[in-house]
Design goal:
seven-stranded mixed sheet, alpha/beta, two-stranded antiparallel ribbon, Cobalt-precorrin-4 Transmethylase, domain 1
Length: about 270
C-alpha cells in the first residue's frame, strides 16, 4: 500500500521528522473521513468520495500512469478520451473507498441491495464448503465482492497489503472485522495459504496488483509481469479456482457474480 496518501513521497522523505508528521496528519485525516462517511447515507457518501477523488486524483502521479496505460490498452483513442476516462477512474475509486467504509451497512441491507448470481458449479462447491481460491480484480465495487463468501458462511482467508501507517492499518482492519475473515499479509508468502487450503478453508485474492516479479504473459500486445500464484496454489493443493466479480447497479444496488470453477486444460500443468 502507499507509504503516503495525501503528500508526494519525494516531499515527505526529505527528513524523518517530516515523514512522521505526514503520517500523523494522514491518520487524523482518515479518522475524520471515516467519521464523516459513517454519518452519511450510502449514496451521499459515495457521491462525496467520488467528488473528492475526482478532484484530487487527476493531479497525482498515478494519473500520469493511468493515461500511459490507457494509451497502451486503447491506442486508437484520443487524448481527450483518455483524460476523461482517467477522471472517471478516480471517481470510481472514490466510490470504492466509500463502499469499504459502508461495507457493514451494505451487508446489513443485503436483501434490498445485493443480487447474488452464483453459477451451479460454484453454488455446489460453496454449499459443500470445499476449499476454494476466489479470485477477483480491483474493478468496479471490488470491496463488495467478498460479501458472497460471508453469505455462504465460508471460512475465508483474505490476502491484504499491510499499511505503512499503523493508525491507518488499524482503521482498515477494523472495517473488515465483521466479515469474519482471517487476514493474511501479502508479505507472509504462500506457506500460510497452503496450510489454510489443506485445512479445508478458502482464500480471497485480488490478482491485479503491481508486481516486481512474476511470469511474463502477453497483455494488450505486450509482455507483462503476471501473478500466477492463484493457479499455482490450485494445482498444488487441489483447491477449486473460482472467479468472482461485483457490479454497481442503479439505485445503490449491486450484483455479485460467482462463476463455475476453472479447470486446467493440461492435467500435467506445472505447479
Amino acid at each position: 500500500m502507499p507509504q503516503f496518501y495525501f503528500i508526494p513521497k519525494r516531499l515527505a522523505r526529505k527528513a524523518p521528522w517530516l515523514a512522521r508528521a505526514v503520517q500523523w496528519l494522514e491518520a487524523m485525516g482518515f479518522r475524520f473521513i471515516f467519521w464523516l462517511m459513517r454519518l452519511l447515507p450510502l449514496e451521499r457518501a459515495k457521491q462525496l468520495a467520488g467528488f473528492a477523488f475526482g478532484l484530487v486524483g487527476p493531479h497525482s502521479d498515478k494519473a500520469t500512469k493511468a493515461k500511459i496505460n490507457l494509451a497502451v490498452a486503447f491506442p486508437d483513442t484520443s487524448e481527450a478520451w483518455r483524460e476523461q476516462t482517467m477522471r472517471r477512474i478516480f471517481h470510481s475509486l472514490g466510490y470504492s473507498a466509500a463502499e469499504l467504509i459502508k461495507l457493514e451497512q451494505i451487508w446489513e441491507e443485503r436483501n434490498a441491495r445485493i443480487d447474488f448470481v452464483v453459477h451451479p458449479g460454484a453454488r455446489e462447491l460453496m454449499q459443500a464448503r470445499r476449499p476454494a481460491i476466489f479470485v477477483s480484480a480491483h474493478v468496479g465495487p471490488w470491496q463488495v465482492a467478498p460479501l458472497v463468501t460471508k453469505y455462504y458462511e465460508l471460512t475465508i482467508n483474505t490476502i491484504y497489503a499491510p499499511e505503512s501507517n499503523p493508525v491507518v492499518a488499524e482503521l482498515m482492519l477494523e472495517l473488515r472485522q465483521f466479515l469474519g475473515e482471517k487476514l493474511v499479509s501479502s508479505e507472509d508468502g504462500l506457506r500460510p495459504l497452503i496450510k489454510e487450503l489443506k485445512a479445508g478453508n478458502s482464500i480471497n485474492m485480488a490478482m491485479d496488483t503491481r508486481l516486481d516479479s512474476g511470469k511474463l504473459v502477453p497483455f494488450f500486445g505486450r509482455d507483462a509481469l503476471t501473478n500466477t500464484s492463484a493457479a499455482g496454489l490450485a494445482l498444488r493443493t487441489g483447491a477449486a479456482l473460482v472467479v468472482a466479480r461485483a457490479e454497481r447497479l442503479p439505485a445503490g444496488r449491486y450484483r455479485i457474480t460467482v462463476y463455475d470453477p476453472l479447470t486446467s486444460p493440461d492435467p500435467e500443468a506445472p505447479q
